[in-house]
Amino acid sequence: QVQLVESGGGLVQAGGSLRLSCAASGSIFSFNAPGWYRQAPGNQRELVAAITSGGSTYVDSVKGRFTISRDNAKNTVYLQMNSLKPEDTAVYYCRVVVTTGEGLTTVYWGQGTQVTVSS
User: Fold this and answer.
1) Is the distance from CB of 32 to CB of 96 less than 8 angstroms?
2) N or C: which end of the chain has fewer CB within 10 A?
C-alpha cells in the first residue's frame, strides 16, 4: 500500500511564497514522473509543473515563479511557489508513478492542498 501526503498549502498575500510537499510512503521501489496539478473552482485540472526525463516543464503562467524538485531519498516532491498571484488560487494535487517492491506500477494522486492568494 502506498500513500501520498501533501502539505504546505495555506493563505498568503499576493507576492508571497509557499512551498508544497508531497511525500510517498509504503512499499516503494521507484518514484517517477512527479508532477503538480491544480484545479480552481469551475476550471479543469491543469498541469502546473512536472519532472520528466528531459528535465522540468512548467505551464506558461508559472514559469519563472514556480520550481519543482524532488528528493529521491525521501520519496518526496516539492513545489516552491514565489511571487504568488490571486490567479494561482486553487487546490493543488501531486501525482506520481510508483513501482512497489512487488513490481506493481500505479499512478497515485495526493489528497489535494488548498492554496489561496489574497490581493
Assistant:
1) yes
2) N
Amino acid in the structure at residue 82 = N
The Cα diameter of the chain in Å comes to: 48
- Cell numbers 512497489 correspond to 100
- 70 vs 11, 14, 19, 51, 107, CA distance in Å? 24, 26, 12, 9, 17
pLDDT 10s digits, 9-66:
999 999 999 999 999 999 898 889 999 999 999 999 999 999 999 899 999 999 999 9
Q: φ, ψ for residue 102 (rounded to 5)?
A: -90, 0
Instruction: Name residue 118's amino acid.
Output: S
Q: What percent of the chain has pLDDT over 70?
A: 100
Which one, of 66, 56, 111, lies nearest residue 88 by Cα? Answer: 66
| Cell numbers linked to 5 | 501526503
